[in-house]
Write a structure and sequence with these properties.
Blueprint: H1 17-31, H2 43-50, H3 54-66, E1 70-73, E2 77-80, H4 97-121, H5 124-143, H6 148-161, H7 165-183, H8 188-193, H9 195-212, H10 215-240
Antiparallel strand pairs: 1-2
């Protein structure tokens, strides 16, 4: 086994030990301490180096496998993948402000493209689904109810209308992380400030552009909507303190 520098950190934070250890190992892989094809230290070596239980080590290695950083070889242990971290895509559940800005940027790229394609490719069934989701949001707005689920359905309808199965699948994955940012729009504070009404007006612009088959207008409406959504979410987070 190649010789690698020993960690000087024998005490990992007690919360989320498996995730923390996995992050440490990923950092070592990215730093070149462990190169593609290298065998990771054994389970017991990791236990001793980081002063954690075998269960924590197993959780960390499982995370690395899921994220494509390591692969197991029967009876030989865990080895760094040929292209570490490229087998899967993941966004952390808890994001720092800078990371959240990057996620909104990613959302903008994806949603603009989807809106443009939807305007070019939408079918009658797509239009019906889009209209139904919009009307559900409108009813929630007028009735003072939570329209977050309808909001998710609205954006899912746009993804479907793009008629690209890979784009729709990726959009569904990203929606897990976008849903919380959309939910903020439907909170009582957002209603009182006019944010919910503003968001619904942006949704209407999207619907109109897609129905007209105007890809350029649809892309513009999507870009503006995501930018405003980011601003609304950040403002809501600041108020929470």
């Amino acid at each position: 086994m190649p010789s690698h520098p020993q960690s000087s950190d024998s005490d990992l934070p007690r919360a989320g030990l498996g995730a923390t250890l996995a992050a440490r190992l990923v950092a070592s892989i990215r730093a070149g301490d462990f190169k593609p094809g290298d065998r990771l230290p054994t389970e017991m070596q990791l236990v001793e180096r980081f002063s954690v239980s075998r269960a924590v080590v197993r959780e960390a290695i499982a995370r690395l496998k899921t994220d494509g950083f390591v692969e197991s070889r029967q009876g030989s242990g865990a080895f760094v993948s040929a292209k570490p971290g490229l087998a899967n895509f993941r966004i952390a559940n808890q994001l720092a402000a800078a990371d959240l800005a990057h996620v909104f940027e990613l959302r903008g790229v994806i949603e603009v493209g989807m809106a443009e394609l939807a305007a070019q490719r939408r079918s009658k069934a797509d239009i019906a689904a889009l209209d139904a989701a919009f009307m559900q949001m409108q009813q929630a707005l007028e009735g003072g109810q939570d329209g977050a689920d309808a909001d998710d359905a609205f954006h899912a309808a746009i993804a479907t209308a793009a008629h690209n199965p890979y784009l729709a699948q990726f959009a569904a994955f990203l929606a897990q992380h976008f849903s919380a940012t959309r939910a903020v729009t439907w909170q009582p504070e957002a209603r009182a400030s006019g944010s919910t009404l503003a968001a619904q007006a942006e949704h209407l612009d999207l619907v109109k552009a897609i129905l007209r088959g105007d890809a350029e207008a649809a892309g513009f409406a999507a870009r503006r909507h995501v930018a405003n959504a980011a601003a609304r979410y950040q403002a809501a987070q600041k108020k929470k303190g």
